[in-house]
Amino acid sequence: MKNLLTDLKTRVLSDIEGAESLEALESIRVKYLGKKGELTSILRGMGKLSAEERPIIGLLANEVRDEIETQMAEKRESIGEARLAKIIEEEELDVTANLSEVRVGSRNPLNRTMEELEELFRSMGFSVVDGPEIDTVDNNFTFLNFPENHPSIEMSDTFYIDEKHLLRTHTSPVQVRYMMSHKPPIRMVSAGRTFRFDDVDDTHSPMFHQIEGLVVDEGVSMANLIDTLDLFVKALFGEDMKTRFRPHNFPFTEPSAEVDVSCFDCKGEGCPKCNFTGWSMELLGCGMVHPNVLSMCGIDPEKYTGFAFGMGIDRITMVKYGIDNIRLLYDNDKRFLQQF
Ligand code: PHE
Question: Is the CB of 285 under 6 A from ligand 1?
C-alpha cells in the first residue's frame, strides 16, 4: 500500500510538471483525485487494512493528497502567468485601429428638447431659472390656490416625503418661489423633472418633465398670453402651425385654457392620427395668474396681472422625434441614442 502511494505520488507530480494548460491540469486532477480517480480508490481500499496499518497509511495518503493539491495550485498560477506574459508579448496596442465598432451614445433627445425650449424662451426675453424637485406642500399646492379637497393632493396621486414635503407634481411651485423672491416685471421659465403616481405605459411615466413660464407686470393681458404662446408654437414646430385655446380649469389661473396645436402629421388637413379633426390635443395648460396666488406670493393683484403656462417636455420630444414609447427616453440605450 505504501509503495502504491509513493509510486502514485511520483507519477502525479511528473504529470503536473508536464502539464501545459489549465485543461490538462484539470484532467490530471480528475484522473487521480476525481470520484473515480486512482487516489480515491486507494483510500477506499483502506477499510481492508489492519488496525495498526490504517493510521499510518491514512496519514501518508493525506500527505500525498496535500502535496498533489499544492503542486496543482502552483502550476495553475504559473500557467496563468505564462499565458498573460504571452499575451503581453504578442499583442500590441494599435493606436491606428479602426474604432468604428465602439458604440458611443449621443445627447438624449429629451435634454436636447429641454435646452431648445429654454433657448427659445430666452430669445423671447425670459430668464431661465431652476427649482428643486423636492418642494413643500405649500409651494406645490397651498400657495397655488389649490382647495383643500383637490384630488391631486391625495396620497394616491402624489409622492410625499413627509407631511410637509413632496416630489413636486408640476413645475408650478417654481412660480411661487420666483414671485416670493422677485419683484415685477417678471418673465421667467423653468424646466425640470416632475413626479406623479402613475403606472408606466407607452405614454406615461411616474417621472416626467415640464417647462413652466410666468410673466407678471402692469397691464399683462390674455391677449399677451395668446400671442406669446402662438409665437412659441410657430417657432418650435413651424410657421404653418396654428393654436386653439379651449377653456379649462386650474386652481392657480383664472381664466384657464388648454392649448391644442395643428396635427403634427397632416398640419391641420385632417388625417387618421388626429381623428380627422386637424388638431393635436392638449399641448399645454395656461391662464391668467389667479389674484389669490399673486397676493399669497406678495404681489399686489390690484396693480399687477400675469399669465402662466406649463407643458410636458416628454410629449413634445416624442412628437418632434417620432418616438412612440416614453420608456425609450429614460433607458439611455446607446442603440436608441445613436439615432439622434
Ligand atoms: N401646472 C399645470 C399642470 O401641471 C400646467 C399649468 C401651468 C397650467 C401654468 C396653467 C399655468 O398641468
Answer: yes
Q: Is 50 exposed, middle or buried (0-12, 13-18, 19+ CB in 10 A)?
A: exposed
- Under-70 pLDDT residues of the chain: 103
310 lines ligand 1 (CB under 6 A): yes
Ligand 1 centroid–CA 39 distance in Å is 80
26-54 pLDDT, tens digit each: 888 888 888 788 888 877 777 788 888 88
Q: What is the pLDDT of residue 221?
A: 98
In tens, the pLDDT along 196-228 reads: 998 888 888 999 999 999 999 999 999 999 999
Rounded CA-CA distance 147/114 in Å is 31
Q: In angstroms, rounded to a whole number, what is the distance separating the alpha carbons of residues 215 and 310?
A: 12
- The residue among 24, 45, 41 whose CA lies nearest residue 32 is 41
Residue ranges with strand state E in 33-164: 127-128, 134-136
Distance 309 CA to ligand 1 centre (A): 6
Residues composing the chain: 340
What are 247's strand-pairing partners? Answer: 257
Choosing from 143, 250, 293 the residue with most ligand 1 atoms within 8 A of its CB, the one to mutate for a pocket test is 250
- What per-residue confidence (pLDDT) applies to 2? 78
The pLDDT, as a whole number, for residue 293 is: 98
Round to whole Å and give the CA distance between 112 and 316. Answer: 11
Rounded distance from Cα 285 to ligand 1 centre (Å): 5
Among 172, 189, 245, 283, name the best residue to mutate to test ligand 1's pocket (greatest count of ligand atoms within 8 A of Cβ): 172
Compute the distance from residue 161 Cα to the ligand 1 centre, in Å: 22
- Sheet containing 207-217: give its strands across: 127-128, 186-195, 207-217, 305-312, 279-289, 253-262, 243-250
Predicted local confidence at residue 51, as pLDDT: 82
Q: Is 175 in the pocket of ligand 1 (CB under 6 A)?
A: no
